[in-house]
Structure formats: structure tokens, C-alpha cells
């Protein structure tokens, strides 16, 4: 807790605030609060107005957001949740303001652990899809390596027997070089898949970068294909959309969680009678990714609980109940939202709304 007077001079701090600010009350008392308590938006890392100053200016309670960062005396950043309110006397005269905040570092660490746990579950679920993705370039590598080996053996034999034809050799060497190029292409493709999966499974800091939404969505669809195509016709309408400022691995995780849910909502072995439609579009502010299925849909009661951690409509051992909760947390942290349209027997549409990068 931090209290200030009408001039934003600190009048009181409690022990927790002393810890976060890195200074005792004796040194903080009388200092301008903006000099020792610097806040920035957790999502954008851009400075925000001090909520104490805002509470004094508006003469009402303010909430700077679900999480901001406190830059303490040691320069370290700590996520907090905070509320500020003006202090008035019995005559409604403004005396100052008070900021109440709490350290949510442990909460953020637990959220990160949930994200990683859910990602590992997704990896297990998608093992067949990953194997299929790797098998294609490996088949290309194996076939071309066999062809090159056979051609070189044949050339070596003809040289040894004195039947080597230089004219034919030039043509055959062109075929060998083309096969080697295909082999290299397959090897690079396999390496890219392995690197993608390494990044997807690694517990790395959730740094943000400009993410190609269309490319990331297409990758997620390929990874999930083995779970979608036996159940439904997959239709994609992925137009050019702006990038978003996010973590690519986490955005891929959101798409994969929703795609897996769409596939699991449908019966296996009946792809002709069901459809999964995937659309990416945008306006001047938002990027929208919609994933629709023709499954049984959800009742109102299930829709109300869909983002609860550990809530699952599947049987024991068939789901951990983290997928949609984690997706909701990732998207919300970016300033986005997830909308769900569903009704029993009418299928489900999940709309992922992400802020377009400026």
C-alpha cells in the first residue's frame, strides 16, 4: 500500500511496498511518488499514468489493468495487480489518494507452468501428426539417397569395365545433382520441423515479436491434420492478414488447442458428414481467426464454464481441462479475446480476436 497527499508526496507505505520499491519508509516519505513508483503496461511495456495521479485527477477509484509492472529501485520488474482511490474527509474535501497492489509474480509463474503442461499434452496428442510431417521429407531423402547411390555404383562399374559413355554420363550426372538438391530440400524441411517442435516444447521466456498469423495458423493445421481429416472435411479460408505482436509458440498453441477441440467434438471415421472450417480475416484493428465445426455443440451451462481450468466434458484420462483455459489466458494477455458461438446440436464456432500490430 502507498498513500500520497494532494501533491503526490508519499505519506505512507507498508512493509510490502517497501520491499517492492526497495527503500524504507524513512527514505520514501515526502518523495514525489512518480520518482520512485514507475509503472508500465505489462503487455506493451509502455509507461502508463500513475494510478494515484489518475485517482486524484478524476476523484474516483481507478484500476490500471489486470497487471502492470513496478520498476523498483534495483531496476527489476515485478508484475502487480492494483487499484487506486482518492482519500476524502467527512466534508468530501480531497486529502490525497491510496494505491493498493499485490505482487502476482507467483501467479504468473503458475500460469507459465500451466501453459507448458498444456503444451506437452498437445505434443503427445499430436505425435502422429508430427511423425507424418517428418515422414514426408524423410521419404524424399531416402528415395533420393538410394537413387544417387545406385547411379554412382553404375558409373563406377562402367568405368571399371571400360564401358563408360561420357555423353550418357553428363545426362545422368544432371539427374544425380537434381536428386542431391531434392535430398537437401528434404533435409532442410525435416530440420525445420524438428526446430519448430523444439521451440514449441521448450520452456523459454514468452518474448514477443511480430508473428505471421496466416503462416502460424497453416502450420498448426498441418500439425493437427492427422486428428482432423479422419473426422471431417477441412476447409480453409486464410486471407492475407496483418501480423500481431505476440509469442509465436504461444499463438500456435492457441490455434492447436482450438483445432484439437474441434476435431475431438466429432466422431471418428465419418469425414463426409462433418466439416471443420478455418478462416482468417482482419479489419483495421483486429485479426480474427474463426474455427467452426459441425459437431453436437455446447449447452449454455458448458459455454459458461469453458474457460475454467481443469473443466472438461471428456472422460477421465481423455483431457486435462487446460486447453481452453490456457488459450484464453494467452489471448487475454495480448489484449485480445475469445468468443464462442454454440448451441446444442448446432455446432460450435470459436473466434480468436487478436490486436493487429501497428
CA distance, first residue to last residue: 36 Å
Overall radius of gyration: 29 Å
Shape: elongated
User: How many strands, which pairing sense, and closed or not: the largest β-sheet?
Assistant: 6 strands, antiparallel
> Oligomeric form of this entry?
single chain
Helix content: 40-55%
Unreliable segments of 5+ consecutive residues:
none
Structural class by helix and strand composition:
alpha+beta
Average residue pLDDT: 83
- Residue share in β-strands: 15-25%
Strand order, biggest sheet? 2-1-6-5-4-3
Number of helices: 11
Which sequence of SSEs, written as H and E, runs from N to C?
A: EEHHHEHEEEHHHEHEEHEEHHEE
**Count of beta strands:** 13
What does this structure look like?
- The protein has 358 residues and is an alpha+beta fold.
- 46% of the residues lie in helices and 22% in strands.
- It has eleven helices and 13 strands.
- It has helices at 15-21, 25-28, 33-36, 51-58, 105-125, 127-161, 166-201, 213-228, 248-264, 300-305, 323-333, and strands spanning 2-5, 10-13, 38-41, 68-71, 77-88, 94-103, 209-211, 233-238, 244-246, 275-282, 286-293, 337-342, 348-355.
- The chain has a six-stranded antiparallel sheet. Strands 8-10-11-13-12 form a five-stranded mixed sheet, covered by helices on one side. A two-stranded antiparallel ribbon has the order 7-9.
- A hairpin with a 5-residue loop joins strand 12 (337-342) and strand 13.
- The chain is elongated, with a radius of gyration of 29 Å.
- The two termini are 36 Å apart.
- The mean pLDDT is 83.
Amino acid at each position: 500500500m502507498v498513500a500520497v497527499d494532494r501533491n503526490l508526496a508519499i505519506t505512507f507505505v507498508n512493509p510490502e511496498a517497501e520491499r517492492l520499491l526497495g527503500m524504507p519508509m524513512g527514505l520514501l516519505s515526502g518523495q514525489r511518488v512518480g520518482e520512485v513508483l514507475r509503472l508500465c503496461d505489462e503487455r506493451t511495456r509502455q509507461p502508463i499514468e500513475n494510478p494515484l495521479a489518475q485517482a486524484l485527477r478524476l476523484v474516483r477509484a481507478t484500476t490500471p489493468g489486470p497487471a502492470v509492472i513496478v520498476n523498483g529501485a534495483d531496476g527489476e520488474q515485478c508484475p502487480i495487480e492494483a487499484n487506486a482511490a482518492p482519500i476524502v474527509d467527512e466534508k468530501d474535501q480531497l486529502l490525497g489518494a491510496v494505491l493498493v497492489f499485490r505482487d502476482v509474480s507467483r501467479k504468473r509463474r503458475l500460469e507459465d507452468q500451466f501453459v507448458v503442461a498444456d503444451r506437452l499434452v498437445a505434443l503427445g496428442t499430436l505425435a502422429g501428426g508430427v511423425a507424418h510431417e517428418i515422414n514426408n521429407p524423410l521419404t524424399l531423402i531416402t528415395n533420393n539417397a538410394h537413387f544417387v547411390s545406385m547411379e554412382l555404383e553404375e558409373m563406377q562399374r562402367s568405368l571399371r569395365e571400360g564401358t563408360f559413355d561420357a555423353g550418357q554420363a553428363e545426362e545422368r550426372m544432371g539427374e544425380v545433382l537434381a536428386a542431391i538438391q531434392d535430398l537437401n530440400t528434404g533435409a532442410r524441411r525435416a530440420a525445420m520441423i524438428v526446430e519448430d517442435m523444439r521451440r514449441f516444447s521448450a520452456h523459454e521466456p514468452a518474448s514477443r515479436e511480430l508473428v505471421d498469423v496466416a503462416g502460424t495458423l497453416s502450420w498448426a493445421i498441418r500439425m493437427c491434420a492427422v486428428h482432423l481429416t479422419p473426422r471431417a472435411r477441412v476447409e480453409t479460408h486464410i486471407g492475407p492478414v496483418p501480423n500481431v505482436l505476440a509469442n509465436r509458440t504461444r499463438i500456435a498453441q492457441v490455434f492447436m488447442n482450438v483445432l484439437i477441440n474441434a476435431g475431438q467434438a466429432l466422431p471418428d471415421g465419418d469425414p463426409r458428414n462433418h466439416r471443420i472450417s478455418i478462416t482468417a480475416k482482419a479489419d483495421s484493428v483486429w485479426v480474427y481467426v474463426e474455427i467452426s465445426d459441425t459437431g453436437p455443440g455446447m449447452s449454455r451451462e458448458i459455454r459458461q464454464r469453458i474457460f475454467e481450468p481443469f473443466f472438461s466434458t471428456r472422460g477421465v484420462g481423455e483431457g486435462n481441462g487446460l486447453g481452453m483455459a490456457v488459450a484464453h489466458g494467452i489471448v487475454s494477455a495480448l489484449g485480445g479475446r475469445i468468443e464462442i458461438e454454440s448451441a446444442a446440436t448446432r455446432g460450435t464456432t470459436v473466434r480468436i480476436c487478436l490486436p493487429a500490430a501497428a
